[in-house]
Amino acid sequence: MKLRITPNSLRLRVSQSELARLIQSGRIEETIRFTAGADAKLSYALELSENLKEISIAYRPQAVTVLIPSSAARDWATGDAVGIYGDIDLEISKLSIIVEKDFACLDGSDRENIDTFPNPKKGTTC
Prior knowledge:
Distance between the termini: 19 Å
Strand order of the largest sheet: 1-2-8-7
Oligomer: single chain
Number of domains: 1
């Protein structure tokens, strides 16, 4: 699972096997370590919720979880939709949440494209 953070935006891109695991288990998670220290890490996860109607987020120190409605995730996994999107009102600003299928990059190496979704724009460049 790839994580991209920009000002007021959080984007997760998932491979085919990660999406299959998410649908099967209800949660996928990754951790990035910044130093050898026990607290020098950030975990990020994608989790399904039967109780939600729209995308949401749960945050605690060193961990962020994007929560998506289970029914929306199942439709997304079996359909042609690229992703699930939502905005969260933070009162002082909004946070855009983007969860997308990771498509093969057309000008990338075969190694970079392992386990990605077939690119619907095959014949053009990324």
